[in-house]
Structure formats: C-alpha cells, structure tokens
Amino acid sequence: MPLTRLTVALNTNRNTKTVLLLPRTSPADPASGPTSIHAQVLKSAQTKLRLKVKKPNAPRFFVARTGAELLAPDDWARAFHDDAFLLISAGEDFVGKKEAPAADANPDATVAVLARAADVDTAALTQLRVTATSLPGIVHAAGQPDLHPGNKFPIGAVFVSKGWIHPPLIGGDIGCGMAWYKTTLSRSQVDGEKGKKVAEQLRGLEGPWREQAEREYWMGEGNSAGEEWDRSLGTIGAGNHFVEIQVVEKADEELELKEGEVLLLVHSGSRGYGGDILKRYAADGHNSLKEGEEVTSAYLEEHDRACRWAKANRDLIALRFFDVLEPGGAWSVGSDVQQSVVEGFRKDVQTRKVVDIWHNNVQRMEWPPKTPNDAPSLSGITTAASSLSLSSSPESQQYAYIHRKGAAPTLDPDTFNPLAILPLPGSRATPTVILTPTFSPLNAHGATNALSLAHGAGRAMSRAKALQSLCNKYKGDAEGLLRPGKVAASAAAAAGTEGDQGIGKDAEKGAGTWVVCEEKQLVWEEAPEAYKDVWAVAGDLIGAGAAEIRGWCAPRISYKVRNT
C-alpha cells in the first residue's frame, strides 16, 4: 500500500518530533474516525511525543512552514503530502512567524490544474495555490499536467501577474528551453548496434568552447555575460539537461518533420549565469519586484540577456554535435577566428533549426488573450510585436507578465502567432510527443492554460527518492541502465502500459536507447521510472483543449555527460 511520509513535532519544541508513514488513502475529514489523518497524527503525538492536552483545551494542528491551521477537510488534504512538516499544540497558538500574504496579494486569483490522468503530488498543488494567492499581483495560475513540487515554488507551473515581476517563480536557470534541429543522418545509421557506435563517437563535447573572443562573436554584441559565465557556453549542464538523437516515427503529413528523419533535441539553459542573476535580485527572500522601479528594469534587462545567452548556448551545443555526427569539415570552425566566420556558422545552425522555445522565463503579453472575433490582423500583430519587449514601459493595463517555470509557450515570442509544433519529451527511453497548441472556448482561447503547455513528462519521484529506491531496485547496476534493454524495461515500468503510442513494442523497433552518462548519481536520478507517463501528460493537454498530438519521435541516443 502506498504510504505518505509526515514529520510531526510539538508546537512548543520542534526538536521533539517523530516521523509517520500513513496510508495515502487516509481520509482528510477529521470526522471520519480513527483512520483519518487527524486521528492518526493525534494518536502518534500522544504516544510518541507525550502530548498532554488539559481540558477545556483541544489539540490544534499547524503547517510548520506557514503557520496555517488545519481545521477543515480541505486543509488536511492540502497538507497531506510526502515530507510535510506539521506541528501539534495543546491548545496554544502557533509558535513562530507566520507567512503573511503580500499587501497586493489577490486571494481571488484563479487557479487551473490541467492534470487528470497524470498523477500530481498534493505538495505541488499546495505550492501552486499558496503562491497564486500570496504573491502580489497574481491574477491567474495554471498547473500543467507535469506539475511537481519545487523547493518552495512549483515546477510545471505558470503564473500571470499584473504590476509585479517575481524572479523566484522563473528560478535560476533563466532561459532554459529546448530546440529541435534536423540532421543529415538516416534511421539506419542510429538504429541498434549502430546507435552504440554513434554514442561512442560523442566525445570532446564538454568544457569551454574556444577563446572568449570567439564566444562573443557567437553570441553577438551585447549578449556576453562575462568570461566567468561565458566559459560554459556550448555545454549542456547537469540535472535534467540533455541532448537526444531521435527518429521521427510518426508525423502528420503537413508538418515540417517527416517520418524517418533524425533530429537533435537540445535541452539546456543559461548555466550558472541565470543562477547568479536570481541570487542578486532575490536576496534575503525578496520574491517580488514592482513594475516601473529601477531595480525591476535592471532585472528584466539581465533576464532578457540570459534568455538570449541560453538560446546561443543551445545553438552552440548543436554545432558541437554536428561536428561529430556529420564529419567532413562542414561544421568545423578551424583555426580562423574572424568574426564573420563564427557568425556564418551561427547562421548555418539556424537553417537546421525547427523550433526553439524558452520554458523558464517571464514574458509580457496581452491579457486576457483575444478570441478570434476580436483578434487583430496580422499586420497589427506585427506592428505591436515590433514595439513590445519584456523590459518596455507599460502603456495600458491590458497586458500581464507570464512567469513560466517548466512550461512551454504556445505563441511565438517574436510574432505572437501560434507555434506550429512543440516537443513534449518523456524520459531517456520514452517518446518525445509532437504537439500543436490549440485555442478554443474549451480552454478560453489559451487563458485557462496561461498560453502555455507542459514542457515534459515531469518528475514522478524526487531526486533523493529516485537515487535511493532505483539504486536498490536495480542492485546498484548503473551501467545496466545505460543499455537499451534495461532502459526500456525501466520506461515500461514508469508507463505501466504498452501500445502503439507508448513505449511498447512498436516504440522499440529501433532497439531502444543508448545512454551516455558518466555520473552515476544522475543515472538513478534521471531514470525513466523517475518520470511520469508522457502519454498521460499529453492526454491531459488534449482533454483540456490546449493541444493536439501530431506525431512522436523515439530516442536512439541520450547524452547527459561524459568525463573522458
């Protein structure tokens, strides 16, 4: 039976505490009797913490982090999640500093959760709702089907605010996103054992790319973050970042992608630069910046630079991979360091690019979205786009700041036209679903999902849980999880189903995925079982009227990190 892990401590002394493992099916209603969460927590406090309540007092329960008191069934339901920290009192008030909503917080902010089939941790739902109603200026929040808990703010979430910017909602990896590039490889060159040979060739892709002058040529004028951060340009990074070599297995005829093509999917961001920005603008727990203030403009300027830096980073990663995958010198910069040469290679990479999106950023957009009846003409959109930027001064109240943390945009950031396709990657062994965003009354023409879609399958396990449980399950055989057989088995265990749209037999005709990852901890943390079923996530987007499935790609090589 699945269990939920809680920590319960005395309100007057948090060092006196105990850990409880309660069935996830425990009723949230305190009136449900001895099996309710309330009753089980109280019994444990009385026996293990020696809690004594003198009449006429009654025990009281609080969330340790916020000081919120648990009274109604909904309160208990929100507080009941893995690693929750609850306090119990003998009738006294909460001891500690309560988190109070900001002065401009909106208790009536709307919250939409698109998940139905995809499982969502209650902790993430709590983070979504608390954030939406406690930070200033929030008018709407959308939890995507890949929603999962973050350290304080959720991932797979979108927050729409007016008058305020909230840097922590974007996080430190500003500009992180994904880009698809076409290669000249054929399916036969990456299937089966040939895929293993390709994986073996992927070397020399770590470490700084060339000298600072050439890196600045690559980024273009005004986009350098300084040599300290620019040394990471062209590198993938750790965590959930990756480069994947994929085969288009199915694609609608009218798409730019064709069945049998081999693509490069690059997932990376601004590396340490974005984290440095967040540290400087969100120091001492300062979460919000008011529109129009000098510090806000300065943050937006650096935010925009980090987004451009991240896009240049993905392009350079693609160049480095092309140089290995398509030998012959066409992608080799050589010893010539002239600016025009480097800029020429950057332009050449653009000819291979299918789509490139940010999923960690803030974007100034018209809000609420226009319906087809009152949408402007294309010329009007183009005119508006040319005069609009994230850091421009406000001209009216018919706009908002859309904060995305692990969520893909549905509109092109330059033209504001709907994007034709978007990648929805699963895990290192499951398909990347090809999506097209949709706009209809069902999703309020994009307002319900905050003009955003899920950016991936989303974590089903925390990194700590995946590291411990999967290492035990596979008896420490990290090497085995780099080979197609065990990778596919792990993916099947994560999905729980097979079928012609899943990671079943049809998806494995190419003999699975070879994984390049020389950091053992990452092997466990990023195993397929640590992620949700990507088809469930995609299905929820379809059910919400936010997207259509146009095809899918199967991975052949998944590259994380190579130290040799």
From TrEMBL:
This is 3'-phosphate/5'-hydroxy nucleic acid ligase. Pfam families: RtcB (PF01139). Keywords: GTP-binding, Ligase, Manganese, Metal-binding, Nucleotide-binding. PANTHER family: RNA-SPLICING LIGASE RTCB HOMOLOG (PTHR11118). GO terms for biological process: RNA processing. It comes from Botryosphaeria dothidea. The active site is at H455. Its EC number is 6.5.1.8. Binds 2 manganese ions per subunit. GMP binds at N240, H241, F242, V243, E244, H359, N360, H455, G456, A457, G458.
